[in-house]
Amino acid sequence: MKRILPLMLLLVAFVARAEPRDDVNDLLNRMHEATKLADHEAYFAMFTQDAVFFGTDVWERWELPEFESLYRPYMQSGRGWWFQMRDRHITVQPGATVAIFDETLYSDAYGQCRGTGACRLEGGAWKIASYHLDITIPNGISTPIVEMIREYEADHIELMTFNIRYGTADDGDNVWKNRRDMVTSLIRAELPDVLGVQEALAFQVDELTEAMPGYGWVGVGRDDGERAGEFAPIFYNTDKLRLRQSGTFWLSDTPEVPGSKSYGNTIPRICTWACFETLYGERPRTFFVANAHLDHQSAESRLKSMQQIAAKLDKAEYVWFVMGDFNCTPESEPIAALLGEGFLDSADEDSDVGTFHGFTGEDDGRRIDMILIPDRCEATESEVMTIGGEHGVWPSDHYPVRAIVNIRPQRDD
Fold first, then answer.
1. Is 80 exceeded by the pLDDT of residue 364?
2. How confident is the model at residue 14 (pLDDT cuts 50, 70, 90)?
3. What phi and psi values does residue 136 have, to the nearest 5 degrees?
4. What is the DSSP letter of 164?
5. 3-class secondary structure, 236
6. Helix or strand or coil: residue 27?
7. Amino acid 315: pLDDT
8. Helix%, strand%, coil% for the chain, nearest 5
């Protein structure tokens, strides 16, 4: 009897430890079955409300509401996806309310993959709190695969423009201190290669720099050419790009004079520009970016400013991208000054999402923030990022705009 009792206690302990693992294992099996059957109701019911999903691309991090908005309609159309489990390890953490897992998977589309994540016990039921899907790469071909990725990235540049609203504005709940982390988190999640910012004051530029490791920046304050007044800074990813040259000019008859204005605007307006070279790729790619914030009151100033910017561009030899808050819509005369001279709006032709919303979260306002690209390039992705609104606070009164552009000139065969 003395020997049997310890054995029974060990058995009970083993069963207690095994049951959570069995429950988590069953949950993951049901998840894969739901995606195979495109059963969106069962699938999304398996996740915690704060669940996070990581896809195979570096920017693919979705919290549950965004992930569901993307993939519930996909599954409702009858389409699913199937990853077949080949091996799985589950470790229940002390307290038996959290379990971490990793699983080897096979997919006809992606081959051998790995899924990792965590599950949490809620109300007596296990749910998935995070899931991370990776496409595995054999070590023997990792070097050429990395070279292929770098070659692709050298051709495809992600651009973003973002009016972050000046940091001393009295915006109630939307004051800068309440928005700062939202702004930097949004940028870090997207990891654009080049980011043009408008309305940034010097202290905001400093805070963005501190919160975004791996980024350099160029620009000056519009009032004195140093740190006074709003900047139109250009941030760039130093992991991918080398800065070759940069500068700022004032949108006036005296573009080299700090603080100058002469087009009917009552405050100075500037354009900051930079020339970049890709760090990787068989052949380095060189391109220019201009970032501007046109006047909000004077139509004459907006037109003359854009004409001045257009005259600055050496489009024949180099690829230029022009981005910013233009305070006018795509069909306006200032935008036509570039669209009629070999430039395209990176947005889809049928895009009707506005970029200025005044902290309301609406998307039917004016589309005044744009990324203009040469017509010899191609925008492979473009988006007005209507993100934010938690507890009534938005990253800015403008939505950021992003575009991924193939910078290789199109050639006629």
1. yes
2. very low
3. -80, 150
4. -
5. strand
6. helix
7. 63
8. 30, 35, 40
Taking the C-alpha atoms of residue 353 and residue 298, their distance in angstroms, rounded to an integer, is: 24
Using a 10 angstrom Cβ sphere, with 0-12 exposed, 13-18 middle and 19 or more buried, the burial of residue 159 is buried
What residue ranges do the domains of the chain occupy? 13-135, 146-406
Triad 265, 169, 261: Cα angle to 5°: 15
Angular region, 36: left φ>0, alpha ψ -120 to 50, beta rest: alpha
Strands 111-122 and 61-63: unpaired
Asked if residue 12 has pLDDT above 50, the reply is no
CA distance 49 to 64: 7
Strands (E), 165-233: 194-198, 215-218
Domain boundaries 146-406, corresponding CATH code:
3.60.10.10
| Whether the domain at 13-135 and the domain at 146-406 fall into the same CATH topology | no
13-135 fold: Nuclear Transport Factor 2; Chain: A, (3.10.450)
Tens-digit pLDDT profile for residues 295-335:
999 999 999 999 999 999 876 678 999 999 999 999 999 99
Angle between helices 176-190 and 202-211 (to 10 degrees): 40
Residue 241: burial class (beta carbons within 10 Å; 0-12, 13-18, 19+): buried
The structure tokens 């004079």 sit at: 257
Task: Using DSSP bridges, classify how beta strands 125-135 and 111-122 pair: parallel, antiparallel or unpaired.
Answer: antiparallel
Rounded Cα distance, 240 and 190, in Å: 14
Helices (H) and strands (E) in the chain, counts: 8, 18
Query: Rounded to whole angstroms, how far apart are CA atoms 259 and 270?
Result: 9
Q: How far is CA 117 from CA 120, 129, 134, 155, in A?
A: 10, 7, 11, 33
Pairing of strands 369-374, 343-345: antiparallel
Structure tokens at 294: 């046109």
Tokens of 256: 């080299």
Let me know the angle formed at the C-alpha of 265 by 332 and 336, rounded to the nearest 5 degrees: 20
Least confident among 351-355, 392-396, 407-411: 407-411
